[in-house]
Specification:
- Helices cover about 35% and strands about 20% of the residues.
- By secondary structure, the chain is of the alpha/beta class.
- The strands form three sheets. Strands 6-4-1-10-11-12-13-14-15 form a nine-stranded mixed β-sheet, sandwiched between helices. Strands 3-2-8-9 form a four-stranded mixed β-sheet.
- A hairpin with a 5-residue loop joins strand 8 and strand 9.
- Helix 9 runs antiparallel to helix 10.
- It starts with a strand and ends in an 8-residue tail after the last helix.
Length: about 325
């Protein structure tokens, strides 16, 4: 399998209109999870992708499995928990366009995530194993599953990809810097936001950050995502500024995961580092043009058209 991810995906409720949740009267039900977003992004581009997780034996769990299957993601390594419920989140867009999220995931099925035989087999067959800093924040069993996934990837020769995806609400008062940095040095690809980089490592230059990660670990490529300002991608020999791709932003949620999917899929194709960044930038930009985490994720044909700057004729 080209890419395998692991982590919690939730049933996500978003009001039909912007504003505070207290004033909402109708909601749209979607599926939301950073790791499954990356799997969907890869599958939409025509790559084989698997997602390892745990969902409740409830309608929300079935909704998640149904939608990911429909997008071509292999969910055969997802366990169904008879005793715990699928996690939920409620999303609101506040005045000024700021997005806020309220989680109901404590004690969820995914918080008891562990690796069974199916999950280990899928990890052993992966070319890239993509992990985030969200999963270890969910509890000790999840943190242990992430450590085991990293170990399996190293033993089998898979490249580990890591996006810190820091969620301060999940970590609470616990220290997140040490566990997240400990995972980052295990990765071949580290994909993070500029603000996350400063939060985790202080005011290092991109070259200094690459050097710090490379000295301690296995780093091959680093991507610094900077939203509407584009991105920076670098290796030991190269450094490229990736300009933002033109878009009409509606909702930025899911854009970072789309960037990850594009960057990693281009890496699987063996493309130059600059092109990996370009794929990520295009997918990330187009993801912002719709509501929902993955509604705007592109197919391979659509991506290639954007890279050629073609305009689709729709009528």
């Amino acid at each position: 399998m080209d890419l395998v991810t692991m982590g919690e995906t939730m049933a996500a409720f978003a009001p039909e209109e912007d504003g505070r949740l207290r004033y909402a009267s109708s909601f749209r039900l979607r599926v939301a999870g950073a790791e499954s977003n990356v799997a969907v992004g890869a599958a939409r581009l025509g790559f084989s992708a698997g997602w390892i997780s745990r969902v409740g034996a409830d309608e929300f769990g079935q909704k998640i499995l149904r939608e990911l299957r429909a997008d071509g993601v292999d969910v055969s390594a997802v366990a169904v928990d008879e005793d715990r419920r699928t996690g939920l989140l409620f999303k609101e867009t506040r005045p000024g366009g700021e997005t806020a999220v309220t989680y109901y995931r404590a004690g969820s099925a995914a918080s008891a995530l562990s690796l069974d035989g199916r999950a280990r087999e899928q990890l052993r067959g992966a070319r890239i194993v993509h992990l985030t800093g969200i999963t270890p924040a969910l509890g000790e069993s999840c943190a242990q599953a992430v450590r085991e996934a990293v170990s399996i990837a190293h033993e089998s020769g898979a490249a580990v990809s890591f996006d810190p995806n820091i969620r301060r609400k999940l970590w609470g008062s616990r220290d997140f810097v040490f566990p997240v940095r400990s995972l980052a040095v295990q990765a071949v690809y580290v994909l993070l936001g500029r603000e996350e980089a400063e939060l985790l490592y202080g005011p290092l230059s991109p070259r200094e950050l690459f050097g710090a990660l490379a000295r301690c670990g296995r780093l091959r490529a680093l991507a610094l995502k900077d939203g509407a300002r584009g991105a920076l991608v670098l290796s030991r020999e190269e450094l490229h500024e990736i300009p933002p791709f033109p878009c009409a932003c509606v909702d930025p949620v899911g854009a970072g995961d789309a960037f990850d999917a594009g960057f990693l899929c281009a890496s699987l194709e063996g493309l130059p580092l600059r092109d990996c960044g370009r794929w990520g930038a295009v997918l990330g930009a187009k993801a912002t043009e719709t509501r929902g985490d993955t509604d705007g994720y592109l197919s391979r044909r659509e991506l290639e058209a954007c890279l050629r700057r073609e305009t689709e004729i729709t009528r």
